[in-house]
Amino acid sequence: QQPVQSPQAVILREGEDAVINCSSSKALYSVHWYRQKHGEAPVFLMILLKGGEQKGHDKISASFNEKKQQSSLYLTASQLSYSGTYFCGTEGGMDDKIIFGKGTRLHILP
Amino acid sequence: GAGVSQSPRYKVTKRGQDVALRCDPISGHVSLYWYRQALGQGPEFLTYFNYEAQQDKSGLPNDRFSAERPEGSISTLTIQRTEQRDSAMYRCASSLPYNEQFFGPGTRLTVL
After folding, report:
1. Which A residues 81-100 touch B at CB under 8 Å?
2. Per-residue pLDDT tens for A42-64?
3. Cβ–Cβ below 8 Å for A97 and B98
4. Is the separation of the CB atoms in B21 and B87 below 8 Å?
5. How far is the C-alpha of A46 from the C-alpha of A63, rounded, in Å?
């Protein structure tokens, strides 16, 4: 079951904040966040694990609500370099495959 | 250090031909994953390996698709009797156990 991301696209001015949401219809073990720029490979941002352990990325934070099977990615004081497509990927168990959402396209204007 | 590499970067083939796509993971990475990514979409899981063992192949679309990783390092994704609908970007990724995945640059496959 593919996770659902919202919004599908966001346009911001540099310095504004953004929140990207990811929700799943099944219980989750972990949520992974990646950013992909046009023509490039996805790049890891963050993993959020069941139980609260979190690995982070400078200036970007995230939350994981296990009960609601939801995660949110927070980008504060956005920079031009934040532009790209953000994907969440969900795992149902420790050794499970990652299922990626359709992505959220973020465009930062100067 | 070197990242994940894939070859060829671009492959154009005629319908009905077989193709082999190669992935060279980061040295020491136990897990290797294959994905297919359509334009504007997220990576779609195909299969993954821990060492040489194929752990999950539930994402392979049909029996024309197969993958191997015989020595626990380099992996090959083979598509037999290619069809136009197989055209896509094929990406592999590697990781340490339960850690972030590092994606390769992908192979852009076009089936004419």
Report:
1. 87, 89, 94-95, 97-100
2. 999 989 987 765 656 668 889 89
3. no
4. no
5. 10
